[in-house]
Specification:
two-stranded antiparallel sheet; alpha/beta; eight-stranded parallel beta barrel; single chain
Length: about 325
């Protein structure tokens, strides 16, 4: 089990979440500089898995710029294709990203992403869904198979929404030349949406890699008067944070690390202070009772994703 760094909040000044503090990201030069230093600090703290995507604004470009300062074969980059960032760093943009799972989009985004080689180890379909038909698109799958073979990549999918498990099951049935095609699954998982547990053992038994995203439930793990139904969860998290002398973020990340064996759990830190707090998840172990208590806060995927859809870009 290990922590990786996700770069969604480092490449875009706005992100879908519940912000804990106001921040002014209008100065793009400063924002870029700060994001670069988070990546460097993560590396200096021992992080070697970095997750990015063209849909994350500046993120891929930033990671590429950072890689040019390194010569370390232990660095692993995972990126994706399928989303285009459209907000152009405008706080008031009506649309921040557009999804398109076409062969043309794959080819277009690969042209930039391939510059991340040889550090690029994981290439994913960004937010694969049944609706886009991407898991049945032979042209796309054949091109991904070609990239997998030519560059020795792990090919994966990321999942979002109420039917994550259904999408993963469908992806597990995709075969090319008689062999299962997908190697890695990046899944939303936290103590509110625990659906991944239904299939995690099966994935691990088939030697698949698991990456956990949104371990902090887009900020909903922090006390917030807009969510009175989470009062008991907030009190429990605050007690555990006090017990282990860490932040609530570290408790949430640790839950993912301990309940899904061998998973990589992504920190979505947007500044160096947040990242160093996240990293405290490596300093303690939750007890079985703690885990049982946290697991009791599970909500239905329908409830979880309906609530998530109401979050704002900010």
């Amino acid at each position: 089990m290990m922590i990786g760094l996700g770069t969604a909040a480092l490449g875009r000044p706005q992100y879908i979440n519940v912000r804990q503090e106001d921040c002014d990201n209008s100065n793009l030069t400063e924002f870029r500089k700060q994001s670069f230093s988070v990546i460097e600090d993560a590396y200096n703290a021992g992080i070697r898995y970095f997750d990015t995507a063209p849909g994350y604004g500046l993120a891929e470009e930033l990671v590429l710029e950072w890689l040019q300062t390194k010569n370390d074969k232990t660095i692993e980059i995972g990126t994706k294709w399928g989303y285009t960032y459209t907000a152009n760093f405008d706080v008031n943009a009506a649309v921040h990203e557009v999804k398109e799972h076409s062969l043309a989009k794959l080819n277009e985004q690969w042209k930039f992403s391939k510059q991340l080689l040889p550090y690029l180890k994981v290439y994913q379909i960004h937010s694969a869904t049944l609706e886009t038909g991407v898991l049945e698109n032979e042209d796309v799958l054949n091109e991904l198979a070609h990239l997998k073979k030519e560059h020795n990549l792990k090919i994966g999918i990321t999942t979002t929404g109420t039917n994550q498990i259904e999408v993963i099951k469908k992806a597990l049935k995709v075969e090319i030349d008689g062999e299962q095609f997908f190697d890695l699954f990046q899944v939303t998982y936290n103590f509110l949406d625990q659906s991944l547990q239904e299939i995690s053992e099966e994935l691990l038994s088939q030697n698949k890699s698991i990456v956990i995203k949104e371990a902090l439930a887009n900020g909903r793990v922090f006390r917030n008067e807009n969510y009175p139904h989470y009062q008991k969860m907030y009190a429990t998290l605050e007690d555990l944070a006090s017990k282990y002398n860490v932040g609530i973020d570290a408790i949430a990340l640790k839950y993912g690390l301990q309940t899904i064996p061998n998973a990589t759990v992504l920190s979505g830190a947007s500044n160096t202070n947040q990242f160093s707090e996240n990293l405290k998840a490596n300093a303690f172990m939750l007890s079985d009772d703690d885990i049982e208590l946290l697991s009791s806060f599970k909500v239905s995927p329908d409830f979880y994703w309906t609530e998530r859809k109401q979050l704002q870009w900010n």
